[in-house]
Amino acid sequence: MTNLVQNKGTEDKLLDVHHIKKYFPIKGGILKRTVAHLKAVDDVSFSVFKGETLGIVGESGSGKSTLGRVILRLLDPTEGEIYFNGDEISKLKQRQVRSYRRDMQMVFQDPFGSLNSKMSVAELIEEPLLVQTNLSRQERKERAIKIMEKVGLRADDRLKYPHEFSGGQRQRISIARALIINPQLVICDEPVSALDVSIQAQVLNLMKDLQDEFSLTYLFIAHDLSVVKHISDRIAVMYLGRIVEIAPKRALYDNALHPYTQGLLASIPIIDTDDTKQERKKTRITGDLPSPVNPPTGCPFRTRCPLAHERCSVERPELKSPENDEHLVACHLYT
Ligand code: SF4
Fold this sequence. Notes:
CATH topology: Rossmann fold
Number of domains: 1
CATH class: Alpha Beta
Strand order of the largest sheet: 6-7-8-3-9-10-11
Helix content: 25-40%
Distance between the termini: 31 Å
Mean pLDDT: 90
Bound molecules: iron/sulfur cluster
Low-confidence stretches: 272-278
């Protein structure tokens, strides 16, 4: 699915996120007053179009997982709006959110931690049907067997427990559980990072096949650009709670504009093939991620950026398009 953004209109948007912030209060003193805020997500806006995969990439602490939980309304946003299929869902009460949960599911990083070890695979996979539908026991069983086979699990294993499966199989159980109620959007929070590299490719291929078969839209969260490369149509790069660059996949890998994105690309090991003989812009990222409680003034990346200049410490760069509307970057080098 290439060039998904081109010729897309409002009716093609599944998810629209406007200026979302998620601040966590930090309490201190005897009276436990709020003394500061941890700015996990700090003014993030983007759209996701029906049928595409938007990859969200950033280091641990960049706010990407919190963003996924806010979109799913597992966490309330501090500010901003979230539109799903044109309906605003950011201000809904939790009981009103329930009807949208059916259309928005999440696959978590740690399948062992996210699956109740006391429930059999059949119970785990059928649970969303029990909560969200009025299907009979027999109908639930039939649907569960069908989805197990789709994700490459044996129906005979339905009475086994999560610990009896490998990591890759447990992630297949999580995927089956997410897909059994036919969601439109699946938020995948580092779904393959806990798996061996060989198993990662199998699970990613499975997710791609399921996307085509069930017309799914993915928000795919990962901490490095190599994982999202094959599955994403577009990629957003997050740093300290903000999107610093967003572009179609090809544009991002061939012509990364932001020094942070260039650094992430430089950290991917390269196998020396004709394809990679072109010199990649080698901006190495050094130093640690600053605290989101007290982020740097101006550009949040300036404390680690080899190209930082005077303006970077006083003025925060906005996410703008230097060349075309599909490739946006927040950096003073392009304004
Ligand atoms: S705005 Fe300045 S500090 Fe920030 S990424 Fe661009 S050059 Fe570096």
